[in-house]
Amino acid sequence: MTAQGTAAGGFGVPEPFGARLRRAMDTRGPLCVGIDPHASLLHAWGLADDVAGLERFSRTVVAALADRVAVLKPQSAFYERFGSRGVAVLERTVTEAREAGALVVMDAKRGDIGSTMDAYAAAYLDPGSPLFSDALTVSPYLGFGALAPAAEAAAAGGAGLFVLALTSNPEGREVQRAVGEGGSTVAATVLRRLAERNAGAEPLGSFGAVVGATLGDLSAFDLAVNGPLLAPGIGAQGATPADLPAVFGDAVGNVVPSVSRGVLRHGPDETGLRNSAAAFADAVRAAVT
Fold first, then answer.
1. In whole angstroms, how far apart are CA 100 and each of 7, 79, 86, 180?
2. Annotated catalytic, 73?
3. Where along the chain do its domains lie?
4. Which of 22, 49, 53, 115 is least surrounded by CB atoms within 10 angstroms?
5. Which residue in the list 38, 59, 92, 109 is annotated as catalytic?
6. Domain 28-288 carries which CATH code?
């Protein structure tokens, strides 16, 4: 079964995201490449900052990488800024990337309550949606329990979630490292709740955390959530694959390092994109094994 396998045991039951991700990381290398078509990068590629440039950029990245990297992560905001035409490009990007074999993590960082969270879940985690992705980034800061509709939709559709836990932006500390009533930090509580969601899952749970690769020693936090750790910060933000063992400790085998500009700056040449992604994947594999 390919990374995009949707059935386990032949009974139409969706294969969990965690199992598909583990297989993709083991066969293609543990790497996520972000698709971030911001204006400066479009210009660097010689493209106009318009819908045509957006589509050319996205299709080039997909053509170069979707058949070989484990994960592609489009940033929804860079498509939404063009309105409905940009969202249409995002839909095609997701579909074409998944058809080529990559797992798609939609970087939308959604977080809300009740029926609104239900609607976000339907948009990104319902297999019948044109924006259906293998996983979605979500924010837990309306309460972890408010993410229940997304978690339930993900489980039903064989998808996953990446929940913001320890992000690399300096502003995140004031919320994520704040101490709650029980004496635990907010981030520690998020990690604990993810571990509970993933209890008993094999070979890997489908509910992961976003943990910045630039944060240094995180030994104060229990990162053993039995799920993937999406780790932005490799490349242009300053972290290197060699830093991963020191940051993630015993959980390093479940890390999905995410690089964007470090790879994308080699476009629009498809060979340059492929070679850069392959070099990062090889460096990560060497560092974590």
1. 18, 21, 21, 44
2. no
3. 28-288
4. 115
5. 109
6. 3.20.20.70
